[in-house]
Structures are given as C-alpha cells and as structure tokens.
Specification:
The protein is an alpha/beta fold. It has a single domain (about 1-149), classed as 3-Layer(bba) Sandwich (D-tyrosyl-trna(Tyr) Deacylase, Chain: A). The protein has three helices and five strands. It has helices at about 50-60, 70-75, 105-120, and strands spanning about 1-15, 25-40, 75-80, 125, 135-149. A five-stranded mixed beta sheet has the order 4-3-2-1-5. Strand 3 (about 75-80), helix 3 (about 105-120) and strand 4 form a beta-alpha-beta unit. The protein is globular and about 40 Å long. The N and C termini lie close together (about 5 Å).
Length: about 150
C-alpha cells in the first residue's frame, strides 16, 4: 500500500459526473482546518494487515504543526482511493497501471484503512470509489510525503 499524504488547511472532494455514479454529483467529503488529505493506492498482494498498519501510521505520523499527529490534536483526515499512485511511466509516453490492484481488491482494502482509522478514534471523510472526482485543498507548508507499507 502506498499513501500520498498532504498536510492541509481544509480539503474537499466532489463527484463531478453523476452518470459515472448512481449516487449523484456534489461534495462527498470535506475537512475544515488542519488535517491530512490522503491518497491511497493498493497493489497486488496488499492485505487487511497492511491496511491496519497504514491506518496506524496515518493516525500517529507527526507531520502537523508543532510536530503533532492527528491523534495528538484530533485532526480530521480525508481519504481518497488513488490507483494512479501505482502508475509506471518509466518507458514510453503512456503510463501503465499493471501494479495497481483491480477495483474488487482495492476498494475493500481502502475501506479497511478508513474503518481502522475510525476505530482508532479518527474523524474520517472519504471520496467515492470509482467515481470521477475533483479534489480541492490548501496544502499547508506546502508539506507532502509518500508512505509505503
């Protein structure tokens, strides 16, 4: 599992194409104030245990203002599935997505990350798996880090 983590001062995710998604367009997740926007990629061989490990890492990673973690200040997280984190553009001009797990594998594991975060006490907002989305955020710092478990 791979997570691209951005320290933010607010973030939203909206579904942009209701024809892609039976639940309609509009804002599906939003955090206000200091928190983390986390894009999560799943690859072949990832497990529920790795999802739990990633959740613990996200909850306790000391990257907020004053070297605090989300658990220290009860900061919210916006978690969005992002298969393109496993894109490979080393050859040619068109990336391949071979390392990304298929949706039927990835979706339950991203849901596990969210469930584990909530079990730890986190306030978590999410995107909508498989929907066409737009993510808006104010990157605080800017501060972005890539974590792999």
């Amino acid at each position: 599992m791979r997570a691209l983590i951005q320290r933010v001062d607010g973030a939203t995710v909206t579904v942009t194409d209701p024809s892609d998604d039976q639940q309609g367009a509009g804002t599906v997740g939003e955090i206000i104030g200091e928190g983390l926007c986390v894009l999560v990629g799943v690859t072949h061989g990832d497990t529920v245990q790795k999802a739990a490990q990633l959740a613990r890492k996200l909850w306790t990673l000391r990257i907020l203002e004053g070297e605090k973690s989300c658990s220290d200040v009860n900061a919210p997280l916006l978690v969005i599935s992002q298969f393109t984190l496993y894109g490979d553009a080393r050859k040619g001009r068109r990336p391949t997505w071979n390392a990304a797990a298929p949706g039927e594998v990835a979706e339950p594991l991203v849901d596990e990350v969210v469930a584990h975060l909530r079990a730890l006490g986190a306030r978590v907002e999410t995107g909508r798996f498989g929907a066409q989305m737009r993510v808006s955020l104010t990157n605080q710092g800017p501060f972005t880090v890539l974590v792999e478990v």
